[in-house]
Design a protein that fits this description.
Blueprint lengths: L5 E4 L13 E6 L3 E6 L9 E3 L2 E8 L4 E9 L4 H14 L3 E2 L3 E3 L2 E8 L2 E9 L3 E9 L2 H21 L12 E4 L2 E4 L1 H15 L4 H11 L7 H9 L7 E3 L2 E4 L5 E4 L7 E3 L9 H18 L2 H6 L6 E3 L6 E4 L6 E4 H5 L9 E2 H37 L2 H27 L5 H26 L6 H14 L9 H7 E6 L4 E6 L4 E5 L6
Helix pairs in contact: 3-6, 9-12, 10-11
Length: about 500
């Protein structure tokens, strides 16, 4: 039977758990109302002291305890989670690091036979902690996790938003965004410089020359120039979380609805200036991505440094052009990769093409045969899923039977806790295994390999000069491994190493 608990917050909380049984009792406080369905009890009255409120709920049959606490704390949800988890660690609990879930934070904990999940929310004045302990903590956490996201969604739709953090140029003051004058001056300089015709690279160079502290990078400039917060507006749900624990954050590229709220806080940049910058950015983007530019610079955005992960930038002109790691270019102590003459990358590709043309006719078809064999085995996934479904059903049935035996007094409490925890861990592992199978990404390696074979058959027997178009058809990325070697990643994912005839600069 689905576990039932409906908790409706009137001030801070906003959590709704679906009920599948008739409500039995109602507990009201200044901050929340608890509707208790059949099977759930309140072992003791709500405790209130010095502005704090705490309620305890339990389901004896399912061996689950839930505590709901609201207390005055001048903290954000993240800080409340960090402080609480630190206190639990000091008390001997094994804990996870807090993970964002909507505008709340989630953390797991365990100590001996006790396991549980806590949810932390705060608005800078009041903080709430919901804790679920017992054999069914994971299942309850899944239900609550989904409904926290539901609650967050509803608050967004009502345009009720309390920021949990502040970007560059702002700070949090009484739960609201306030301008930091020194940082706002830099933000205005960035916008004014870009509107005056300065490139992002030039702005970075100027800031690194005139300001102290952490080095600026072009990515930071791009973030500031495109962030609507600097004209006083807020875009909500730029990222979203998936699943119960472990919660993962993803950039929202259309998977979730976004909400734009104007005039939520003081503006640093005038709206007209912000819009002018967006137009200018789009114009430069269009110009940069012209087909002509793709032909002239086939290595653009395809070269990356293995040591630091940065992309390589082209410098110089024509025969003297070379490619430099952006990290090395900013600080030679941060990355040891030396600049690479463009002609050396071109020559490495010519050697790669020759080998593929004359040896790839044997290698690539064999690769396709192996991939097809692997794909056929993947068809057995459905069988695996069926087996996992059976296992999940069996474990769930065993857990329910164990709870029934415990309720009737047929099982010793210590034995019940041990067996219940073991079953819960097995159930979690089975669910995770099923999820991994169902979330496997589609594989397009075979068609990509077939396309490579076609391109190589049509290509010339020997390349005497570098062909940018052919390079783009064959190569997905070039990983610079060291100052003497690189790896070409073909469009099908296959990686082949070539040497670099290094020119010292």
């Amino acid at each position: 039977m689905q576990k039932v608990l409906t908790l409706t917050a009137t001030c801070l909380l906003g959590i709704l758990l679906c009920a599948s049984a008739a409500l039995a009792d109602e507990v009201k406080t200044d901050h929340f109302t608890l509707n208790l369905p059949s099977g759930w009890t309140q072992p003791q009255p709500v405790q209130s002291a010095q502005g704090a409120t705490m309620a305890i709920l339990q389901n004896a049959a399912e061996q689950t305890v839930i505590t709901v606490a609201v207390t005055p704390v001048p903290l954000s949800a993240k800080d409340l989670a960090i402080q609480t988890i630190a206190n639990m660690k000091a008390a001997g609990f094994t804990t996870s690091e807090p993970v964002a879930s909507g505008d709340s934070y989630v953390g797991e904990f365990s100590k001996e036979q006790v396991k549980g999940v806590s949810y932390f929310s705060a608005n800078g004045k009041l903080g709430s902690v919901i804790t679920i302990m017992g054999a069914f903590a994971q299942a309850e956490s899944e239900s609550i996790s989904g409904n926290i996201r539901w609650s967050y969604q509803k608050r967004i739709e009502r345009e009720r938003h309390n920021p949990q953090s502040a970007g560059f140029g702002y700070c949090l003051k009484d739960g609201k965004l306030a301008i930091v004058p020194e940082e706002a001056k830099i933000v205005r300089f960035i916008f004014e410089s870009y509107l005056s015709g300065a490139s992002r690279r030039a702005i970075v160079k100027q800031l690194n020359t005139t300001t102290g502290g952490k080095l600026w990078h072009e990515s930071a400039i791009s973030y500031i120039l495109t962030n609507e917060c600097y004209m006083g507006d807020t875009m909500l749900q730029k990222t979203y979380s998936t699943g119960p624990l472990p919660v993962k954050r993803h950039r929202n590229t259309g998977q979730r609805k976004q909400y734009y709220i104007p005039d939520t806080h003081p503006a640093i940049i005038a709206k007209d200036d912000f819009e002018k910058v967006q137009i200018l950015l789009e114009m430069k983007k269009t110009q940069y991505t012209r087909e002509k530019r793709k032909t002239e610079f086939p290595f653009a955005k395809k070269l990356c440094c293995r040591e630091c992960g940065s992309t390589l930038r082209r410098k110089g002109q024509k025969e003297s052009a070379y490619w430099c790691c952006m990290t090395h270019d900013a600080d030679k102590n941060e990355c040891a990769l030396l600049p690479i003459p463009e002609v050396q990358i071109q020559q490495a590709f010519l050697r790669l093409y020759y080998n593929l043309k004359h040896q790839g006719s044997h290698i690539l078809p064999d690769l396709i045969a192996n991939l097809q064999s692997i794909r056929e085995r993947k068809f057995l996934w459905s069988v695996d899923v069926i087996e996992l479904n059976k296992k999940i059903a069996e474990l769930t049935s065993q857990n329910q039977l164990l709870a029934t035996l415990r309720e009737s007094g047929c099982v010793d409490p210590d034995i019940f806790i041990f067996k219940s925890n073991k079953l819960t861990e097995q159930l979690r592992a089975a669910k995770q295994a099923k999820s991994r199978i169902l979330n496997q990404d589609s594989d397009d390696t075979i068609p990509c390999t077939q396309e490579l074979i076609t391109i190589l058959k049509r290509g010339p027997e020997m390349l005497h000069d570098f062909d940018g178009e052919l390079f783009g058809q064959l190569i997905d990325k070039v990983i610079i491994e060291s100052n003497t070697s690189l790896r070409f990643r073909l469009r099908n994912g296959l990686e082949l190493r070539e040497s670099i005839e290094r020119t010292v600069r």
